[in-house]
Every structure is written in C-alpha cells, then in structure tokens.
Amino acid sequence: MKAAVLIQRWYRQYVARMEMRRRYTWNIFQSIEYSGEQAQIKCTTARDFMNEVCRDTEWERHFCYKNIEVPEIYSGPRLIFPLTVEQVAAMVEAFRNKRQLHSRYVLQLLLETWKLLRKLPNISRISTCHSKEITVCGDLHGQLEDLLLIFYKNGMPSLDRPYVFNGDFVDRGKDSIEILLILFAFLLVYPNDVHLNRGNHEDHIVNLRYGFTKEVLGKYKMHGKRILKLLQKIFSWLPLATVIDQKVLILHGGISNTTDLCLIARVDRHKYVSALRPPKKRTQYPVSQSSVDLDMEDDLSGTKNNQRRVSLIKANSFGPRDGFQRRSLQDFSGRVPRTVDEEIEVRRRQSGFIKGGFSHSQGELNNLAVSSASQESTDTADTTVEEWKQILDLLWSDPMSQNGCIPNEVRGGGCYWGPDVTQDFLDRHNMQLIIRSHECKQDGYEFCHNRRVLTLFSASNYYEVGSNRGAYVKLGPDLVPYLIQYQASSMTRELTLRKNVGKVEHSALKVLREQLFAHKSDLVSAFQEFDKDKTGVVSLNDWATAVESVLRLGLPWRMLRFQLATCKTPGGMLDYQEWFQELSIKEPQMEHIDQGLLETLYRHRATLETIFRIVDLDNSGFITMEDFRQTWKLLSAFLKMEITDEAISDLSVTIDTNQDGNIDIDEFMEAFRLTDKKSRLERGKSMFMGTTTDLTKLEGDPNI
Asked: I want to staple 279 with a disulfide (CB 3.0 to 4.6 A). Which of 176, 271, 463, 584 is the partner?
C-alpha cells in the first residue's frame, strides 16, 4: 500500500507538471497570435486608398475564363459545368495526390460560386427534419489533411449528409485554395445541403498577412491576381450565419449586447468587402466620366480646417501605382493608428459634410443640395456604421466568463461577451445554443456560459504538431451536440505525453525568445529602471515585471523564468546583458544598418510584409525603391516613430544587391529573419526535470 501511494503521488505530480507546461505553452502561442491580429487591424487603413470597385455587371466580363487554354499535357482534373458529384470526388482525390486544378477551371468554378452566393440570404435557415444529422465544422485554416480526415470519418456532403462550414477556410495552412475549391464545388452540387459562413479570415486584407494571398500567387503565377480579385468579391457574398430548426445559431465569432438578427438579415453584406473597416460612401458619376464606380474617400486630416477635398481615383486616368505615388503620406498617416471605436466616431463626424469638399467649386446650388441632403446623409452613415458594427461583432468576438460586454482589446476588433449577454440573446430569439469557432481549443471544442455556447475548432495541430486536436459536431432532430475529435498527423500517435508536451513547448519558447530579442533596446531600458546603480543585474522578480511591461503578452513570466533566464549570479540576480546572449538568437550581419531600424524590422516584420504586399499592386513580388521608401514612411507613421531618410537609404542600398532599382519582397523578408542558434536538445530542457534522458531519445527520433 505504501508503494502504491508513493507511485500514485509521483504520478499525480508528474501529470500536474505536464499540465502546467502545456498550459503556459498554450498561453504563449495564443498571446502572440492575438498580438499579431491586433497589429493587423491597426494597419488596415493603409489599404483603403487603393480599393477599386467594379459594378457587378462588369465582373463576369472582367474575369472571363474562355480565353484561357488548357494544354493537352495537363493531367489534373477537368471540370464540365454543371458539376456532378463524381467530378467533385475526382477533384478531391486529385488534391489528395497533390495535383493542381488548372486556372481556367478555377476561374470558372469561382464565377459559378459567385453567381450562386448572390442569391443566398444573409442567414441560412435549415432543418434537421429532412435528414438524420447535420455536421458542423469549425476553422480549417488551409489544412487539407483535416478536411480529408473529416470526409473519411463522416462521409462527403450529400443529400443525406448536410454540412455547415463555419468560416476561416483560408490562411496559415498551405492548402487554402484547395479547401475553397472543394467547398465551393460541393456548394454548387448540393446548394441546399452545404452551407458556408463567412469567417474573419475571409477578408482580402487579413489574407495579405496570414499567407493566403502569397499561396495563390505562388500556385497560379499567371492568373493569380484575377483569382484573388474574384475571391475578394466572393468573400463579401458569403452568408453571415446559419440557424438550425430556429433553435441553434451558428456564426464564426460571436455576439454582443447589441446583436440583432433582424438587422443582420437585411444588411447588404457584399458592401463589407473587408469587415475591418466600414464601407466607403459611393457616389454615382456620369457614364462619360468613368465606366467604373469611383471610390470616394471621406477623411479628416490635420489641416487647418480639418477638411480635405475628397480624392477620386479614376480607373481611366492613371494607374493604381501612380495613385500611390501621387498621394502624400500626410493623406493617410493620421488614420493609421485609429481603433475601431475611433473609426466609428470619425465616420459619424464625416457624414455631415461628405460633399463639403465640392461646395466651393460647384456654387451655391450645390450648397443648397448638400444642405437639403444633410440629414439623409447623416442617417445613412449612422445606419452603415451600425450595420458594420454588427458584422464586426459576428466575425471577431469572443466569449468571456464574466458578465457584461466589453471591447476585445486583445484582438483589436469585436467584443468580449459574458454569460448574461448569451442568456439575454437566446431568450430574445427563442434559441437554445450558439455554435461558434474563431478560437483554437486544445481539445478541438469547449463549452462555456452554462453549455449555451460551444466553440468548435477543426484545424488540428494548429500551432505545432501535437498542440491541439480538431473536432466537428453532429446535430440530430433532438439538437443534442455529438462531438467527434481527431488529430490529422500520425506523428502525434508515436509520441509519449512527455515528448508531445516537450515538442510543442520547444516551438513556443523559440517564438517567445525571438519576440524578446526583437525588443532588446526597450527591455534594456526597462531593466535599467530597476538597476539604478548600473550594476548590470536585476532580481528575477524585477526581470519578470520589466519583461511584461514591454511585451504586454499577459504571460506567467515568473514561471517561465526557469526556461528563459538561467544565467543567475551567486546572489540570485540576473545579468541582463548576458541573458540576451543566452537567448541564442542569431541576427543578420548588418553592422552598417542603424540598430534601431533593425529592431523595428524584427519587431514588426509581419506588419511590414503586409504593407509591402499592399504596395505591390501588380502582385509581381517586386517593389521599386521609391515604393520601398514610402513603405517605411508609412510604417513610421503607423508606429508613431521617427525613421530617418538616411537609415532607409542605407537599408535599400544593402538589399538591392544587383542595383536594378527593384527589391524582391521575399528575399528582403528572409534576409532579416531571426534564427534560433540553440540546439534542439538544449531547447528541450525541462524546468521541472533534472535529467534529459527522454529528451535525448527524442532528439534521435528520425520522425521528429
């Protein structure tokens, strides 16, 4: 009995240690992911001045596929419309075998999908009485393995097997376009049995940062730009929610205390091409002026009168790149840092003088017309902002355990809503359950709010192999959720619990060390605040406080210090200069480049790449030296920091090795990637275990 008690005590301690490591590893991944989303939302405004919107009647002609020939040597699937289930099954099998669909068929499939989506309502309403069960899937994020595994376990969509896919089909994974094509193809074959909800990643601006844009341009080099433009339109037409038997609401993000399904049901969803910003006000001009709707950019700037003439970008007057060059950074530098709430206030203030910039040039008749339309313009703008806020909450919100509804400052968009908001919403709409996605969960799902909210995530191994399971849910006529979990990678089945936790932990700590190194100068300043005598050392508690004050990730630094800060002096103090060496991060050899500029690049690498992709309007992968300089000026406005022209020139000269006046975006970003110098064995040292026997075995495993 004593031996059994001893073994039991040891085992419980062992499981508790593994769970603690698993939880802080999870916190690292999520904190850094949400920090990136927040940065993405803040830099969204940089894209606004380049939008060009065609009339719907022009899209089919603009994206005509009939002039694209399919060569005889093409061995991939060939599609004949209307599609049959046999053709779709063959396409799925081709994607399983890593074969690619020809761009002609891609464009044709997308055009047919766009035509169908335009006929669908904002909220799809389906019933279980026509089938035995409805299958609901969460985020897939470009992970084709997970979708294929779901089809293997549950069967492909059919008349007897309806599916609801709850958004975030793209980004992060490497097979986003294949997932879209499969889902769209099944939608065309079974329009009443396959239902697609829009997610926050079905947004062309978000795609710039998280990989989908780059994936499409890499796989379809010749027609990738046309495919992306059409997908931008398709994303805006995706339905916003699905209701099962009037009792279960399925949406991607969540709700707020102002969510109104009646309002959501009647909004013009296609206006919200990007849910991150309200749609721009459009004005119709004579046909002789332009064959395309002109984007009207109503803005406030820091000029004397706080008014600026509305900018018109004519499609037939100059190209979009010229448009970028002709715009001064002052035009939009004041807009970059706006939060969602600030944007709402600005849009409301703008509505009163939306045409004021034309009054001096068009005379008193226009003044009279503007004044008579002022109230109508104000009402329209307020309605548009309210609609946009509803959609933003639907796509970006997260549940919280406390009552109430507060802005989601972690992501930068949407809100956090509590169980009281859930109860009130369900009571008002006579419903019993909300199924949402948007958040990665370790078990693939999670109930909250007294089991009235179910979070569903279908992308397994999202952060790292072994980091989480995927799940989908089946609902029958009784509407009781039946959950199925899985993990797509066979590698996870070959690892012990300790090895699995260790592998994920290694990856998380690597990312965290890179974040720490990228904030080196700020961290040194924070340490010096505690080191008044300039001894070069701080206590471990002061180290933890300083690190959190700089990174603001909300991580348990005092627990992580055993993994990140082991170079202690005999007095238990930390030498912070030696600590930076211990991080073992290798930076590029750029001694002649301003160190502050390099740190800015390391810290905001993803944001900088997003802006590069924005400036690269022709999607060539190259930008001019002038665009390069303008990008850095835009970033400096976004960060509210000074970056000198000399520092930017030094950097551009260093990168342009062949002196052709152009910069390869991919090569530039790769040249400034921080790399981890630590050996995998060193990274795997546990803060709780005194030996490395298991980790040594792990190091020798050829499957890792």
From this structure: 271
Exposed / middle / buried, residue 101 (Cβ in 10 Å: 0-12, 13-18, 19+): buried
Helix (H) or strand (E) holding 607: helix 605-615
Give dist(CA 166, CA 66) in Å, integer. 33
Are 234 and 165 within 8 A, CB to CB? Answer: no
Structure tokens at 478: 């009784």
> Which strand (E) or helix (H) includes residue 546?
helix 540-551
* Angle, CA of 140, 143 and 241, to the nearest 5°: 15
Q: How far is CA 488 from the centre of its chain?
A: 22
Tokens (6 digits) for 484 = 């199925």
CB atoms within 10 A of CB 442: 15
What six digits make up the tokens of 669? 């970003």
Q: Do strands 248-250 and 433-436 pair parallel, antiparallel, or not at all (unpaired)?
A: parallel
**If phi over 0 gives left and psi between -120 and 50 gives alpha, with beta otherwise, what is residue 189?**
alpha
Contacts of 596 (CB under 8 A, 6+ apart): 521, 647
Residues paired with 471 in a beta bridge: 485
* CA terminus-to-terminus distance, the chain: 40
Q: Number of helices and strands (H, E) in the chain?
A: 27, 23
CB 239 within 8 A of CB 124: yes
Catalytic residue among 102, 141, 195, 201: 201
What phi and psi values does residue 170 have, to the nearest 5 degrees? -120, 175
pTM for this entry: 0.70
Q: Of 480, 500, 478, which Cα lies nearest the Cα of 489?
A: 500
Please give the backbone phi and psi of residue 497, each rounded to the nearest 5 degrees, phi first: -55, -45
Residues 6+ apart with CB under 8 A from 542: 527, 530
What is residue 469's three-state secondary structure?
Answer: coil
- Mean pLDDT by runs of 10 across the 704 residues of the chain is 89 78 70 63 49 54 81 92 95 95 95 94 89 90 95 94 96 95 97 96 90 92 90 95 96 95 93 80 43 34 34 34 34 42 50 39 46 56 81 95 91 90 96 96 94 96 87 94 87 58 71 78 86 84 87 79 69 78 58 60 68 68 74 69 72 66 67 50 38 33 36
Give the 3-state secondary structure of 161-185.
Answer: ECEEECCCCCCCCCCHHHHHHHHHH
**236-253 burial string, b = 16+ CB within 10 Å, else e?**
bbbbbbbbbbeebbbbbb
> Between helices 212-219 and 176-189, what is the axis angle to 10°?
80
Q: Does the active-site annotation cover 201?
A: yes
Pairwise CA distance, residues 148 & 571, whole Å: 57
Do residues 623 and 634 touch, judged by C-beta distance below 8 A? no
Phi, psi of 664 (to 5 degrees): -80, 120
| Residue 230 near residue 107 (C-beta atoms within 8 A) | yes
Count of CB atoms situated within 10 Å of the CB of 98: 9
Is-contact 81 108, C-beta < 8 A? yes
299: Cβ–Cβ under 8 A, 6 or more apart, which residues? Answer: 308, 331, 332, 335, 350
